[in-house]
Each structure stands twice: as structure tokens, then as C-alpha cells.
Amino acid sequence: MIIEALKSPEKIDTLQKPTGVKPAQLKPTLVRNIELSGEIKNIGPFEISPDTTISRIVNHFGGGAPRSKKIKAVQFGGETGLCLSSADFGLTLEDALRKAGFSGKLTQIAVIPEGVCMVELARDSIASTIDGLCGKCIPCREGTKRVQELLDKLIDGAGEEEDIELLDDLCDTISYTSLCRLGKVSISTVESSMRFFKEEYLSLLKSKSKEIHTSHIKNAENRILKQAQIA
Prior knowledge:
Elements: H1 2-7, H2 9-14, E1 32-38, E2 44-48, H3 54-61, E3 71-76, E4 82-85, H4 93-100, E5 108-113, H5 118-130, H6 138-141, H7 143-155, H8 161-177, H9 181-185, H10 188-196, H11 198-203, H12 206-230
Parallel strand pairs: 1-5
Antiparallel strand pairs: 1-2, 3-4, 3-5
Helix pairs in contact: 5-7, 5-10, 7-8
């Protein structure tokens, strides 16, 4: 009976005939679970596809910066992660990670507002890393300490142009010769901030930052005088 039914013209007409059109070849989308943090309205985990732009991640998912602040950068991968300037926020997440040089599994994106000194951010990053290093190899054990010293020197307004060159060379040495991955990525924030915010490093050189640091001292003195008057 089944064979007879299949032979029946009426039954044949009801079967779906091949159209000759191939199904669309869809590119698989891998959704990432990413924790957003920093100076944004919406902090927490979000499911974000790699074709989403950084601008949309910050402004749509993150809700933008509070109190009319502007966003300066994002940092991929936590406090030792790679930074990317707001000039590249038009890139998709996938392209942004490629440009920043990020590899591995991304779980965190921190949003950095204007007003944050990227050199200080780099110094805080390397300082938080040093205590957790194993110290078995010299590039990691000694190199990271020298990096922190140079960053402190720049922030204090005593840096010279050769300090920035030495900082760049140290980062390359640590990245290529450290024995473990932790040592290699310990200077990620320093390297990326120097790459995308080099002008901030140059602005801290002794010859260019004297006026800036003098103004900071005067402002501090004025605040102390005002506090004394109020008391």
C-alpha cells in the first residue's frame, strides 16, 4: 500500500520538489558573555556578538557615560588588559580586538572616561601585577620593576625623552623573553597606552610638563588655604 501510494500522481504532487536554489551560507555568530565595567551607566554582563561596534557596546549596552562625561578609551581584559582609543570606536569588536592585539578569551571590557591619565593607568596596572609574578626569570622579575620606576619618573615630571625610548625597549624585551604568559602580558596596558596615547607620555616630559605640575601645586595650595579659612 505504501509503494502504491508513492506511485500515485496525486501523492507525488504533494511532495516538496527541489528548487535548485542553494541555502544561504550564513556566517556563524559567536556571542560573547562580556562584563562591562568602568564609567558607564549600565554595569554588568551582556551577550555581545563580535560584529557589534565598540561605540554600540559603550552607548547601547553600557548606556554611555554618566554625568555628561565623554569616553576616552576602553580596556580589554581587566586591569592588565589592552587599551584602545575612542578614535577606533567605529570598529567592530572583532576588528578592535585584532587592532589592539588581543588574543584569547575576552570576558571583560572596562570603559575609561576623559580625565584619566593613561600613564597613571599604566603605572597602576604594572604595580598591581608585580606582586603576583613568580619572579623566576630576570626579564619579568627585574624588567617590570624598571618599567614601574620609569612610569613613576614620568608622572613626577622628571622624565626625559630617552626614558620613553627605554620604556619601549623594556616592554619589548619583557614581552618576547619572559618564560611565562603572565610575564608576557604584564606590560600589556603599558604597551597599548604608549601605542594609542603616546602624546600623553610626551606631555609629561620634564621640559613640557613643568608648567602643568606648577599649576597643580598652586591649585593644591589654594585648596589648603580655603580649607583653613573654612575651619
